Amino acid sequence: MADEGDNIETDEMLTGDEYLAGLDDGREVWYDGERVGNVATHPAFAGAARTLAGLYDALHDPATSDALTFVDRFGHRTHRFFAPSYSAADLAASRDAIEVWQRMTYGWMGRTPDYKAAFMAQLAEGHDFYGDYGDNALAWYHKSASRVLFLNHVLIDPPVDRSAHRVDVRDVFVSLDNSDDNGIYVSGAKMVATGSALTHATFVAMNSGVAARMEPGRDDDMALVFIVDMDAPGVKLICRPSYEARAESPFEAPLASRFDENDAVLVFENTFVPWENVLVYRDVETAKGFYANSGFYNRYNLHSLTRLAVKLQFVAGLMIEGTRASGTDSFRGVQVATGEIVAMMETVWSLTTAMISDPEPSIGGTVVPRLQTAAAARLYSTNAWDRVRAIFESYLAGAPIYTVSSPKDLLNPELRPTIDRYYRGTGVDAEQRIKLFKLIWDALYSEFAGRSALYERNFAGNQEQQRLDALRWATQRGDVDRWCAMVADCMADYDLEGWVNR
Ligand SMILES: Cc1cc2nc3c(=O)[nH]c(=O)nc-3n(C[C@H](O)[C@H](O)[C@H](O)COP(=O)(O)OP(=O)(O)OC[C@H]3O[C@@H](n4cnc5c(N)ncnc54)[C@H](O)[C@@H]3O)c2cc1C
User: Fold this and answer.
1) If DSSP codes are grouped into helix, strand and coil, which group holds residue 275?
2) How far is CA 321 from each of CA 307, 338, 384, rounded to the nearest angstrom?
3) For all residues of the chain together, what is the average pLDDT?
């Protein structure tokens, strides 16, 4: 365990300009039939890149730097969640730092750079977990924490054949081609790498469901965990449509035009990975354990729940303003619906409080949120958004569709008087009402909103796996035996004759 105060303090955290400049590194990103030159200036990515640069600048801004950063036990000034936590107080400070960045995106970017810090921070004290590759793990901690690097992660195999063994889909799934003294060579695709075009490196492993089904001897060539720089030759990103590229103006798509974290399919084509970037090599047991045993699972849920709490505050605001503008906010049923969103937000926030204030010990003297709390939080949070959407659709009903085709309608002097008369709301003029409902549209109904809803439901694994994990981990902890023992105790209190010992 690192000792406090051993090291000289350094501040190498990237600024926004350094982050943007670093993206122009020749990475292979494909969009709309063409290879993208510089993602930082390309219309499909530039808005999101600027938002992320703003997060980096906040690390250095006196107004936010104290809440966001501190000096870790190795001497690096870093984002608080990029370093391991040794106490509940450390976890609380990490949550506050996550919250500061999330407020800058109103909770709409799931993969801000601190998301993968949920894993990278654990490499500091948990490097022994990786055995012969432990030095690589520690080196990656220093690299990631000191510069506040932005890593994406890919855990999921493409949906080409879920019924086959992974080894039978080697032509598509990521597997080892060969290795030499310098490193390993890998080929295969992963679904999907959110934010990857705008990151520094990708982290490659497998999710809990896949890991549980892996077997030593059969799956060794796929039991790999490694990190690849985005500009490494043989790394190809094939992007989904960009909603920010399609956004005609901020007035039209105020969220999509700045928070669209593109999800790309990531393909390796005999990609060289130097040994220093390998964490697990042909080791099924370690590959299986990384998800829960590294503390990643416990910590990423703290990040995602904090983000969701911020996002729910934002949509509570949208609901209140939207119903006010329609003059429905005083109705009892509408207040009931708004109150439900408020209670959902408070539930999510309370789960983060439980995660930070009642942690469990993890590797190397660190503490992480308790596994069972994280499992419960994961399940609640990935179903919450469906309810929000249902509430908006029932209580704002058709109001969000009562808008105009674009800001040009408002700018047209011939049409404007008609719009001003017929589009006003309760206490708001037509322009303000249309502006509000275009924001609501982008949050709940647009293509950007549809992707966001799909993300909320699936980003933490498929819905069945979330429940299976909760049960499996309860079984491993002995909880299942304890609960069954309660039932046995209860049944031992009586028999065919009546009460026993009572
Ligand atoms: C917007 C978005 C962003 C994402 N970003 C990332 C990312 O950055 N990194 C990343 O790694 N992943 C990412 N994902 C992928 C995400 O993690 C997966 O979509 C999620 O884990 C669900 O997996 P799946 O889609 O393959 O569904 P599946 O695993 O195919 O599950 C769908 C259903 O099929 C059935 N099923 C599947 N397999 C089995 C089985 N073996 N036995 C029995 N039933 C089965 C179950 O009923 C299950 O509910 C993202 C997804 C979305 C939608």
Assistant:
1) helix
2) 21, 11, 21
3) 96
**Burial (CB count within 10 angstroms: exposed 0-12, middle 13-18, buried 19+), residue 501:** exposed
* 3 state SS of 133: helix
The enclosing H or E element of 124 equals helix 123-126
Q: Cα(448) to centroid of ligand 1, in Å?
A: 19
Query: Is 89 within 8 Å of 48 (Cβ atoms)?
Result: no
**What single-letter amino acid sits at 295?**
G
The CA–CA distances, whole Å, from 25 to 119, 220, 267 equal 25, 33, 18
User: How far apart (Å, rounded) are the C-alpha atoms in residues 5 and 357?
Assistant: 25
Q: Which residues contact 21 (CB under 8 A, 6 or more apart)?
A: 40
Q: What percent of the residues of the chain are helix, what percent strand, and what percent coil, each to the nearest 5?
A: 55, 15, 30
CATH 1.20.140.10 fits 296-481, yes or no: yes
Please give the helix or strand (H or E) that residue 418 lies within, else none.
helix 416-422
**What's the CA-to-centroid distance between 360 and ligand 1, angstroms?**
28
Quick one: which atom of ligand 1 is closest to the CA of 458?
Answer: 20
pTM (2 decimals)?
A: 0.96
| Ligand 1 binding site (Cβ under 6 Å of any ligand atom) | 152-156, 159, 162, 191-194, 207, 263, 451, 454-455, 458-459, 461-464
Q: Which atom of ligand 1 is nearest to the CA of 213?
A: 41
Beta-sheet strands, E only, within 247-336: 263-274, 278-281
- The residues pairing with 266 across neighbouring beta strands, listed in sequence order, are 190, 237
Q: Give dist(CA 17, CA 91) in Å, integer.
A: 29
Separation of CA 487 and ligand 1 centre (Å): 35
| Percentage, residues of the chain above pLDDT 70 | 99
From the CA of 452, give the closest atom in ligand 1. Answer: 1
Is residue 296 within 8 A of residue 212, CB to CB? The reply is: no
Q: Name the residue type at position 399.
A: A
Quote the CA–CA distance of 109 and 101 in Å, as a whole number: 10
Output the CA 467–ligand 1 centroid distance in Å.
13
CA of 126 to the centre of ligand 1 (A): 28
Average pLDDT of the residues in 131-151: 98
pLDDT tops 60 at residue 5: no
